[in-house]
Amino acid sequence: MRLVLKRLAAVPVVLLVLSTMVFAAIRLLPGSPATGLAAGGASGTATAADITANTEKINAALGLDKPLLSQYWSFLSDIVHLDLGSSFYGGNDITGLLGDTLPATIELTVAAMLIAVLIGMLTGILAALRRGTWIDTATRTIGTVSFSLPWFALGVLSIVVFGVWLRWLPVIGRLPNALDYHPLTNFVLLDAILQDRPELIWPWLEHLILPATTLALSMAGFITRIVRASVLEVLGDDFVRTARMKGLSPAAILRRHVLRNSSLPIVTVLGLQFGSLLGGSVITETVFSYPGVGNLLVNGILQRDYPIVQGAALAIALLFTLVNVFVDLLYLALDPRLRKA
Amino acid sequence: MSETLLEIRGLTVEFDVPAGRLPAVAGVDLSLRRGEILALVGESGSGKSALSMSLVGLNRGPRAHIGGEVLFGGRDLVAADEKELRGVRGRDIAVVFQDALAALNPTQRVGDQVAEMIRTHRKVPKRQARERAVELLGEVGIGNPAQAARAYPHQLSGGMRQRVMIAIGLANDPAVLIADEPTTALDVTIQSQVLRLLKRLQADHGTAIVLITHDLGVVAEVADRVAVMYAGRIIESGTRDEVLFHPQHPYTMGLLSSVPRVDGPAVARLPAIAGSPLTGVARPKGCAFAPRCAFAHAACGDAIPQLQQRYGGQAHLDRCVLERSRETLAVTP
Ligand SMILES: Nc1ncnc2c1ncn2[C@@H]1O[C@H](COP(=O)(O)OP(=O)(O)O)[C@@H](O)[C@H]1O
Ligand SMILES: [Mg+2]
Q: What InterPro entries does the entry give (chain B) (predicted)?
């Protein structure tokens, strides 16, 4: 328990450090929001003088003419008041934008995680049990290859194959535009239950499958390797011999003794891998035009929309931290040796 | 008492190792009688565990080659398939392992681990198996069995864990209990408690126990019969008194001389056995102990001596070719 509390206590610190880094990094990028806005505002007909004049006006309006330190200070105090500001473009409230996009990203990453765990566990266990056979070699080779596939390439490939050639699945967005959906929680599955609209589920799943699988594959390859190693290690443990001594069947030994004990290192790795999964979701969301935080972040960066970049990065960091706290709790649930006082 | 329960004939256990094939057990004939405590002694690496694990196929695997016969209840356990063996393991023959902390599942409650042993072989409801587990924990001398049943292994002391292991072993009232160095990991007072427990259970349940140990003090305390192993073979066997008080083989004598004696007058000792046991792949043509034997002569290298009755009682066998009386041996400085 103490471990978890410690983790939770560290969350604000992590977020502070991270937001500071994002605050600095985005401002170090060449170009500024005002240049884009000033040129675009006059729909391309602006003269150089107009642009300079506009830029100054815009900078003043956005508060970008103030010294960095004071910008930083007001940024921090806004965060403390749970005010993430609003977009430089269109003035949308960031909290509102995150409320729309964060559920989408959570759906995507959790679905990817589930797919990855399912594939990774099955193949990892299979490889461990068939150690040294061609099944083992094949599984490990496929795992290694899928682990090293770049998300971008995989995403584009799956769009071409399943969306364009086979036309099996939609490749853009999260739900069909024509669909009559009035978000309540913005989690589609949850809304489908709360609003009693089961017809929402299939279109949602259909849109989720490709991006989630794309995102899952490389993680699955990684999990395969971890599961294989972990299962092999536990299979060599003395208590497995005790289970055999009891007369248990191999299936019962696997189910009751091996899986739980080999899940400990796997769970740790999942927490850490969730970070790279979030990184991958940024790319995957962009490739599939999926309206999540990653997409929001990329657009924010391209437009130098500082508040959006800051808000999206914070949301992603928060998600990562929460998942790891959850992983710690899971760890405690799985291993009684870690439960102390 | 003399009814044979388990008969081992020409048992061999070999492992594929990088250097070749390691003969861990190189032809063992041994029988276990109903209700007796048979001590299997020998230095570390002599093949005691390999022998006992192969009785129920616990060391079967792609790198293990097990030959010979283990006759039990009218069948040969070496030839039996895994499915058949699963019916024997834990029900007719159970094992108590040396390192109870490692041998117990760290993420399962102790009571459930005992109950699992029961439910593997008998169709009883979970609740009933749990209740029986608590009873068993009480029977092996655990103070508050209901509380202990809910504990995880790491929450118990070493002695308690070994008692749990014994409770698991006894859960189905097996005919044979193999205890592989059950007290090695424990401190001395706990050791003798656990031994007395085994002795009592053997008396109460009539369980035959194969007690593996390298501690002759343990043997003296509880064993009915003793078999001494060296380099994968039995080199001497007989009743406890025969082997401990009238040892025939120089190796047994050496083992006995290295037992510290706290009782009685200091006796003239044989030199403690010099050198280290044979554990490699290559084995000599003759007596495996000859290179370390203070009495070895040219004939010892010719052939492996037979295990046979020589100077002692009817069932007192040893594997040595030296023509001698014990007096000639005892004078060696
Ligand atoms: N699974 C195995 N693979 C390879 N060698 C083994 C294996 N088990 C035991 N051995 C070897 O067999 C010999 C006998 O080991 P063991 O039966 O454990 O001895 P003991 O129990 O008398 O100490 C040792 O040399 C040991 O290294
Ligand atoms: Mg051993």
A: AAA+_ATPase, ABC_Ni/Peptide_Import, ABC_transporter-like_ATP-bd, ABC_transporter-like_CS, Oligopep_ABC_C, P-loop_NTPase
A14 within some domain: no
CB-ligand 1 contact for B49 (6 Å cutoff): yes
Nearest to B107 among A132, A238, A334 (CB): A334
Q: What is the mean pLDDT of chain A?
A: 85
A170, A65: one domain: no
- Residues A55/A104, Cβ–Cβ less than 8 Å: no
Residues of chain A that touch chain B, judged by Cβ-Cβ distance less than 8 Å: 132, 237-239, 241-249, 252, 256-257, 260-261, 334-337
CB pairs A-B closer than 8 Å: 69
The side-by-side arrangement of strands in the sheet containing B37-41 is B93-96, B176-180, B208-213, B37-41, B225-230, B233-239, B317-318, B308-309
Domain-terminating residue out of A22, A48, A80: A80
Query: Would A19 be classed as within a structural domain?
Result: no
Evaluate: CB of B276 within 6 angstroms of ligand 1.
no
A157, A289: one domain: yes
In tens, the pLDDT along A245-266 reads 999 999 999 999 999 899 888 8
Using alpha carbons only, give the angle B219, B222, B223 rounded to the nearest 5 degrees: 60
Say if residue A260 is in the same domain as residue A330: yes
pTM (two decimals): 0.83
Question: Among candidates B53, B264, B103, B212, which has minimal Cα distance to A238?
Answer: B103
Domain total of chain A: 2
pLDDT tens-digit series, residues B141-190: 899 999 999 999 999 999 999 999 999 999 999 999 999 999 887 888 88
Mind listing the pLDDT tens digit for each residue in A16-74?
Answer: 888 888 888 888 877 777 776 766 654 556 677 777 777 777 777 777 777 888 888 88
> Which of the 8 DSSP states describes residue B89?
B
Q: Which domain holds residue A53?
A: 31-80
For residue A120, tell me if it sits in a domain: yes
Residues in chain B with CB shorter than 8 Å from the CB of A239 are 102-106
Q: Among all residues of chain B, which has the CA nearest to that of A335?
A: B107
- In the structure, ligand 2 is a single-atom ion and the residues with CB under 5 Å from it are B 49
* CB-closest option in B107, B117, B121 to A336: B107
Report the complex ipTM.
0.89
Same domain, A276 and A129: yes
Which residues of chain A does B91 touch, with a Cβ-Cβ cutoff of 8 Å? Answer: 247
